[in-house]
Design brief:
This protein has 340 residues and is α+β, with helices and mostly antiparallel strands. It has helices at residues 14-23, 38-41, 57-72, 81-84, 90-99, 113-122, 146-156, 166-178, 184-195, 199-204, 262-275, 326-338; strands at residues 2-5, 28-31, 47-49, 76-78, 107-110, 127-130, 140-143, 161-162, 206-207, 211-215, 222-229, 232-239, 253-254, 279-286, 292-298, 311-314, 319-321. The chain folds into 4 domains: 2-78, Rossmann fold, CATH 3.40.50; 106-163 and 205-215, ATP-grasp fold, A domain (Dna Ligase, domain 1, 2-Layer Sandwich); 167-197, no CATH class; 222-331, ATP-grasp fold, B domain (D-amino Acid Aminotransferase, Chain A, domain 1, 2-Layer Sandwich). Helices cover 36% and strands 22% of the residues. Helix 3 links the parallel strand 3 and strand 4 (76-78). Helix 6 (113-122) packs antiparallel against helix 7. It is globular and about 60 Å long. Bound molecules: adenosine-5'-diphosphate and magnesium ion. Adenosine-5'-diphosphate binds next to strand 6, strand 10, strand 14 and strand 15.
Length: 340
């Protein structure tokens, strides 16, 4: 019996898992991971599936500790430790990729202001600045000059950065409203959040005493996201925003198979073996030699965006045209592992 966290939100995976279990007569039990007696609720279950979210304030407090504790006791969990310890943590990912010899775009992280200034003074520009967490390009900025780098370094080792960029979010909501991708209420919400920041940002506190820079890979009009689950891969091309270098969160997508360089797919299969992970989304851009360069990974993704995907690859790089159900793959992964 698989346990599934009881949250029917359409931005999360649960309703898709439940639907797959219902249609395939797979027994499951709904549980509430926030309940004090959650461990007891899981008795008799072989696994727990929970799509926790980077902006879920309770999730930030306790999702990883609960899942890792359960995994240590022998319960199968989704996402497991190898899949998720680095979720929403680009600093952790830098070390992981260096240690596993996975080719991440060159990334520098400093914990000492003087070291950061020394590096900034001898660097060329632009570079990319990121916070360790955040999605949809929210905390990703272009650093155009040494003086811009200095001011970011001063802030990082001074008052720090809020995890939620309130002004950036207002601007992004207005951009989407102009393009007809969101409504006026969403814009209004952005203004309210200037005063009342989202709860998750309060939980996370300020990002402070580290600074993250990445090599800037220019001239990309899109990024390519490849998602690998249980030996199968599907893809999404995301166009960058107008007059911007950032694709994630733009809301402008392409799905045709020809949009995807097979090198990104085979690299993603290779990396997933190295990571020993259940489910990974890889974001790539292309450098001046047209080589795919990884910029970050994530286990979670916005499920509806991938519904129009036109097919998937298997590990032999065969293309399977037509609709498919990656949420079913996640459930099957749990059944496979639990039957070992
Ligand atoms: N080093 C880089 N060089 C060029 N473009 C980048 C680089 N890193 C990120 N980007 C662009 O910025 C977007 C957001 O960056 P990413 O690291 O994926 O953050 P997020 O977690 O917000 O998705 C990407 O979709 C990509 O288009
Ligand atoms: Mg990204």
């Amino acid at each position: 019996m698989i346990a599934i966290h009881n949250n029917p939100s359409e931005v999360l995976f649960h309703y898709r898992w439940i639907d797959y279990c219902e249609k395939n007569n797979i027994p499951y039990r709904l549980v509430n991971c926030y309940d004090d007696d959650i461990v007891e609720q899981l008795s008799g279950c072989s696994g727990l599936m929970w799509h926790y979210h980077q902006a879920g304030f309770k999730d930030i407090v306790m999702a990883k500790p609960l899942l890792f504790a359960l995994e240590q006791s022998g319960l199968k969990v989704f996402p497991d430790f190898n899949t998720a310890w680095h979720f929403d943590d680009k600093v952790g990912q830098k070390y992981l990729f260096e240690a596993l010899k996975i080719d991440l775009a060159t990334t520098w992280v400093f914990y000492d202001k003087e070291e950061a200034i020394k590096w900034a003074d001898r660097s060329d520009y632009p570079k990319v600045f990121k916070l360790r967490g955040g999605a949809g390009s929210q905390n990703v900025k272009l650093v155009r000059s040494v003086s811009a780098a200095h001011s970011l370094i001063n802030q990082a080792f001074g008052k720090g950065f809020p995890a939620y960029d309130a002004w950036g979010s207002v601007k992004e909501r207005i951009r989407k409203w102009r393009l007809g991708k969101t409504n006026a209420f969403d814009v209004l919400k952005g203004f309210v959040r200037l005063i009342n920041t989202p709860r998750y940002a309060k939980v996370m506190g300020n990002e402070i005493d580290y600074i993250y820079f990445q090599e800037f890979i220019p001239n990309n009009d899109c990024d390519i996201r490849i998602i690998v689950i249980d030996g199968k891969a599907f893809a999404l091309k995301r166009m960058v925003r107008e007059n911007d270098f950032r694709a994630s969160g733009s809301g402008d997508f392409r799905y045709e198979r020809e949009a995807f360089d097979p090198r990104c797919v085979s690299l993603s299969f290779e990396y997933t073996h190295k990571l020993k992970a259940q489910c990974v989304a890889y974001d790539y851009v292309f450098d001046q030699d047209n080589t795919p360069r990884l910029v970050e990974i994530s286990y979670g993704f916005a499920n509806k965006v991938y519904d129009p995907c036109t097919g998937y690859w298997d590990e032999q790089m065969n293309w399977h045209e037509g609709p498919f159900n990656p949420y079913g793959w996640m459930v099957e992964l749990m059944l496979k592992e639990t039957s070992i």
